[in-house]
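tool_call: predict_structure(chain=1)
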Amino acid sequence: MLNSDLDGQVAVITGGAGVLGSAMAKGLAAAGVKVAILSRTLSKVEAVVAQIEEMGGTAMALAADVLEKTQLEAAKDKLVETWGRIDILVNAAGGNMPGATIMPSQTIFDLSMSDFDKVTDLNLKGTVLPTVVMGEVMAKQGTGSIVNISSMAAQRTITRVVGYSASKAAIDNFTRWMAVEMALKFGEGIRVNAIAPGFFVGEQNRRLLLNEDNTLTSRGQTIIDHTPMKRFGEPEELCGAMNWLCSQGAKFVTGIVIPVDGGFSAFSGI
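tool_result:
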């Protein structure tokens, strides 16, 4: 059944070809949203568009680098020219790099500042730039919902992922700052929130969490031991929080970060 609040709205999802981004795109499409999938690799985007169309949804492929403002502006122009507006922006583009990760045999003094900068650019600037470009359309409309993707690494100290943690913590701050900015200057119709996923198995972290035979690695086991629900999340389990934040049911909700983590953030480990 379509959500009447969302049916017919227009969304753009950066990083929409990834495991989590594509799941959220499909969740919005199932609620009747016209979904523009944005990523650098057009072939990957087109594959997700085809999947959404097969399930009866409406989707569009947009090729752009979230770190290139001119490419984002071109994608915005194509989207607005085709569908007339932007109601929802989901900033799902992000990732990590080996040099910004401290392995057990290393210390912080082995950190690659070059990789740290790249991770910070991808996760933080790669959220700020799409927000500025797509958010301007919302400002002119006086309505819109922006949903950023945070992480458990922003809220709890998780070893190894120093660059990812710092950049995702910045996302939490930017979410609150942007929520205040938009409400004060462009009205109550524009809201900015974030979702903080717990541990989901994706392309980048699969070998960190699972062995070749899909049994848990030692790190994967540690995570499960500290997750009260005793499992990793399924990508589609982000859709409930996502769709709610974009709906009128959350019209007085802005500046918050919602954990979707199986209880990880609530558990002390004792």
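agent: The chain has a mean pLDDT of 95. Proceeding to next step.
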